[in-house]
Design a protein that fits this description.
The complex is a heterodimer of chains A (179) and B (315). Helix content of chain A is 20%, strand content 26%. Chain A is built from 6 helices and 10 strands, in the order βαββαββαββααβαββ. Chain A is an alpha+beta fold. Chain A is globular, with a radius of gyration of 16 Å. Chain B starts with a strand and ends in a 9-residue tail after the last helix. Chain B has one domain: Formate dehydrogenase/DMSO reductase domain (Formate dehydrogenase/DMSO reductase fold), CATH 1.20.1630. Classes of the chains: A alpha+beta (179), B mainly alpha (315). At the A-B interface, strand 2, helix 3 and strand 6 of A face strand 1 and helix 3 of B. The structure holds iron/sulfur cluster (2 copies). The site of one iron/sulfur cluster has 14 residues of chain A, from helix 2.
């Protein structure tokens, strides 16, 4: 089975927020809510400052606390690419999945259901890229099948150093940041 | 310097998770207290105390039914997608404690009703005269009454444990991520229930017995706290930080003053004096225990949401 993931080059990301706006537009994300966002992390002491800018979203983890805690099966792993999705008609809005995510990637949509990044599965299933990947002006984002050793994402991971967010939380995230 | 800046600003998620407000702690408290009441009432039936005409076991199940329904109503109020609540009962999700809880509640109600039917109150009989006939039949079967007692204890145990497991399986919140949480909530539920029965029991021997039992529960609760903190403090950094939130951090004043002081230590001292006949039994100590139990749930839910894996990177 394919395992969709993203590889994001932090050396290229400038934090322009194009991906954020693209997602809001594509997915009609309600005002005041974010499915993706920009994080700027700085380390060190002047003048030796190290700064990493990265775009973040649900990591579509391989080990998903948000799916196992869901009492109705609304939160589930999609057949295509192992993408983690929420079925709105099954969701009771109990918020357990929001609490269970170590990345705080979920929120409650004003209509009452749990919401988050879908990897734009509606586009991906048509052979398109997720909206955020499509618009990135620096081409820092790559999307593809991590289980295919010949995919662009797998090759990038073979050739570059990378990290994931909070590996210690044990969720096995599928978004990788090149460093 | 280590600074992190995010543009995300989702309501009730940022800057600090606050998705669960008052409804969940109230639900967890009432669920825990009802669990304790079921175990106590079940034990009374099991041990034959119901033969005493003024046994508290006859009033407890009805009060439990009302408290549990209030708790479930609080839970319902918390749901953001209310019209879909029935979806809980079109499936069973093996890995989800909340799904287990929803189904456990379905078992708890008949157990409580069976307990009520053993001796319905006059008020109920006036409305449904047939109830006294049913009660008469049940009372002829002592084995049945014992079994109703066992069922009440068993389902009470499951309910009480579940209120803790619900939180402790959400591993993303380090404070909740201790397998002792269910023991803590169960003992705290038993202690609140014992305090309640101590408060309302008409039978002197029962009131005295429950005051003694409550002292035992309070001591065990203190012990569970010590074990829980030992576990968290010898774990990874996020867990150490989570424990410190209560011990000497943002939640320390409310934790020490209201949960430990007012909720456990002071009522324990008063009740120890009372059971040794140094002071009279008054409602003060049991009320403190009950309020302390409620505040405990608020502190654990709120501080748990505050505790985070990320925080450990910044201290
Ligand atoms: S990032 Fe959070 S919401 Fe997304 S799959 Fe992982 S645990 Fe679930
Ligand atoms: S909020 Fe919805 S998707 Fe999340 S755990 Fe509850 S029912 Fe499942």
């Amino acid at each position: 089975m394919a395992r969709f993931g993203m590889v994001i080059d932090t050396k290229k990301c400038v934090g322009c927020q194009d991906c954020v706006i693209a997602c809001k537009t594509e997915n009609k994300v309600p005002e005041g809510h974010d499915r993706d966002w920009i994080v700027t992390e700085s380390h060190g002491k002047f003048p030796d400052i190290l700064m990493e800018i990265r775009t973040e979203r649900c990591n579509h983890c391989s080990n998903t606390p948000c799916v196992s805690c869901c009492p109705t099966g609304a939160s589930h792993i999609h057949d295509v690419g192992g993408v983690v999705l929420v079925n709105h008609d099954l969701c009771i809005g109990c918020k357990a999945c929001v609490e269970s995510c170590p990345y705080d990637a979920r929120f409650i949509h004003p209509d009452g259901y749990a919401d988050k990044c879908t990897f734009c599965i509606h586009r991906v299933e048509k052979g398109l890229k997720p909206a955020c990947v499509e618009v990135c002006p620096t081409y820092c984002m790559h999307f593809g099948d991590l289980d295919d050793p010949n995919s662009e994402v797998s090759k990038l991971l073979q050739s570059r150093k990378y990290h994931v967010n909070l590996p210690e939380a044990g969720t096995q995230p599928n978004i990788f940041y090149l460093i | 310097m280590h600074e992190i800046f995010t543009t995300r600003n989702n309501p009730y998620v940022d800057p600090i998770m606050a998705m669960w407000e008052w409804q969940i702690p109230v639900y967890l408290f009432l669920g825990g207290m009802v669990a304790g009441m079921m175990i106590i009432a079940g034990y009374f039936l099991f041990s034959g105390r119901h033969k005493e005409s003024n046994c508290a076991c006859f009033s407890i199940p009805f009060t439990s039914l009302i408290l549990l329904s209030l708790g479930m109503f609080a839970l319902f109020l918390d749901l953001a997608h209310k019209p879909y609540v029935w979806r809980l009962y079109t499936t069973f999700q093996l890995k989800s404690p909340m799904s287990w809880g929803a189904w456990i509640l379905i078992l708890v109600y008949p157990a409580l009703i069976a307990n009520i039917l053993i001796r319905p109150s006059q008020w109920m009989i006036n409305r449904v005269p047939k109830l006294s006939e049913i009660a008469g039949k049940i009372q002829q079967h002592h084995i049945l009454i014992r079994n109703i007692g066992i069922l009440n204890m068993l389902f009470g145990l499951m309910l009480g444990a579940y209120t803790g497991v619900l939180l402790s399986t959400l591993g993303s919140r380090p404070l909740w991520n201790t397998s002792l949480l269910w023991v803590l909530f169960l003992v705290s539920g038993l202690s609140a229930a014992a305090a309640y029965v101590h408060l309302v029991a008409k039978n002197k021997a029962e009131s005295e017995l429950l005051a003694k039992a409550d002292n035992g529960f309070l001591v065990v609760e203190l012990f569970v706290f010590v074990m829980m903190f030992l576990g968290l403090l010898s774990s990874a950094k996020p867990h150490i930080e989570a424990a410190n939130l209560l011990l000497n951090g943002a939640y320390a004043p409310i934790f020490w003053v209201f949960v430990i002081g007012m909720g456990i230590v002071i009522p324990l001292i008063i009740q120890l004096l009372a059971v040794n006949h140094k002071v009279k039994h008054t409602p003060i100590a049991p009320i403190m225990v009950i309020v302390g139990g409620l505040i405990l749930r608020f502190v654990i839910v709120s501080a748990g949401q505050y505790s985070h894996w990320f925080n450990a990177h910044f201290h």
